[in-house]
Specification:
Helices cover 42% and strands 15% of the residues. The chain has 15 helices and 14 strands. It is an alpha/beta fold and 420 residues long. The relative contact order is 0.15. A seven-stranded mixed sheet has the order 4-10-9-8-7-5-6, with helices on both faces.
């Protein structure tokens, strides 16, 4: 059997490569930091490159206090739990981190998952049924899309960041919808029992921020739950790093926040859902990724606790990140690059003006690597067709000299390829 299907797979890979959409992985031979030792392509001599493609926004991935907390937890709490929490997998560390996250976001309770992808995968089917509706932004993260597919709620998609489109979808859900899967579809539609609005706080490909204040207002008008996935906002946005919800002045007004420990908060893995106590308790009882997947390892939990402690101690890292982001965005725009405006350290360098946008993005990323700048071209299906880009990610750990070197390399390569 496999000899036949192997041919199909091989042909599919040929198509991906010939279209310029093949994604290559680099081998990192050092810890996660602004300057990496990388082997690329495979088998070539390793080289030092500046790293501009990590979610390590605050530079905590190898922070001494994070490493110290992880080492201590390894000695005192062991390596792994070897089970799920309702059987034998809860330690005092897990409860401490959940309490700390709830306190940080001004919510009532928190539940940990092995990743935010799992958190989103376990949220919707647990609290929404066939008589409910979920209203989702067209550019929400893949984990939200997949999580919604697992539930039976009626799905409404609104145009990206378009509040008029969102309100139109809410009216449809509130006024009536079909909820039957068999005979009887000629019956009159009935209003959704419960409605949920779900949005990314920060959209990972564009770096733009959801209009959470208006979303909450519409949620109040149409009597809905409001959920924000703030994976790229936690630790980055808001006066105290509490994310896009705080940036909008809406802490305490959003029902559920999902997020991750795998980006600004240490960069390892692990996710969480924080919100109303009853919702969190139902998730503990019924959420499949929580019930059937090992809990987060103790070393990661301890590192997460240390990361939130560091964030609470002051805003120095966030201020450095803000300064670095403003400088890099300004310098790239002055150089003539097509970047999506914003304030987030995700800086998309776009190729939407070019017909060969996908291979051009890949070609430019390879040329930048040759100049000592480590970035990645994002092409379909990661982004829509015609929206290929290089997503640059700025960190508080970058020095001004490193940022200047990156801009100079972009200018050199951009001119040679006719991008600017």
């Amino acid at each position: 059997m496999y000899q036949r299907i192997k041919y199909d797979f091989a042909q599919e890979l040929v198509k991906i490569k010939s279209s310029g959409l093949y994604k290559e992985e680099r081998t990192i031979l050092s810890d996660q930091k602004p300057c990496l030792r990388v082997e690329y392509p495979s088998g070539s001599a390793p080289r030092e490159v500046l790293n501009f493609c990590a979610n390590n926004y605050l530079g905590l991935a190898n922070h001494p206090k994070i490493l110290e907390a992880a080492r201590k937890a390894l000695d005192e709490h062991g390596f792994g739990m070897a089970s799920v929490r309702f059987i034998c997998g809860t330690q005092d560390l897990h409860k401490k981190l959940e309490e700390k996250i709830a306190e940080f976001f001004h919510t009532e309770d928190t539940i940990l998952y092995s990743s935010c992808f799992d958190a989103n995968g376990g949220l919707f089917e647990t609290i929404l049924g066939a008589e409910d509706a979920v209203v989702t932004d067209a550019l929400n993260h893949a984990s939200i899309i997949d999580g919604i597919r697992l539930c039976k709620a009626k799905r409404f998609i609104y145009d990206h960041a378009d509040m008029a489109s969102l309100e139109k979808a809410l009216k449809k859900a509130r006024e009536g919808m079909d909820v039957w899967d068999g005979p009887g579809l000629d019956k009159e539609p009935v209003p959704a029992r419960n409605i949920m609005i779900i949005t990314d706080g920060v959209f990972s490909m564009d770096g733009d921020i959801a209009d959470i204040r208006r979303i909450v207002e519409l949620g109040n008008i149409y009597d809905t739950l409001v959920v924000v996935d703030d994976s790229h906002g936690t630790g980055v946005l808001g006066p105290t790093g509490r994310g896009s919800v705080e940036e909008a002045g809406m802490l305490g007004h959003v029902d559920v926040i999902t997020s991750t420990l795998g980006k600004a908060m240490g960069g390892a893995t692990g996710g969480f859902i924080t919100g109303h106590r009853e919702i969190i308790e139902i998730l503990r009882q019924k959420s499949r990724p929580y019930l059937f997947s090992n809990t987060v390892a103790p070393v990661i939990v301890a590192a997460g606790i240390a990361a939130f402690d560091l964030l609470a101690q002051g805003q120095e890292l966030r201020e450095k990140l803000r300064e670095n982001t403003l400088f890099f965005r300004g310098a790239m725009k002055a150089a003539g690059f097509d970047i999506i405006d914003g304030i987030h350290p995700i800086v998309p360098v776009m190729f939407r003006k070019f017909e060969n946008d996908a291979p051009l993005a890949q070609q430019m990323a390879r040329a930048l690597y040759a100049e000592g700048i480590y970035v990645v071209g994002f092409v379909f299906p990661v982004v829509p067709r015609g929206q290929s880009r290089i997503r640059v990610q700025v960190s508080a750990a970058h020095t001004r000299e490193q940022l200047e070197r990156a801009v100079q390399a972009f200018e050199k390569v951009g001119k040679s390829l006719g991008v600017i």
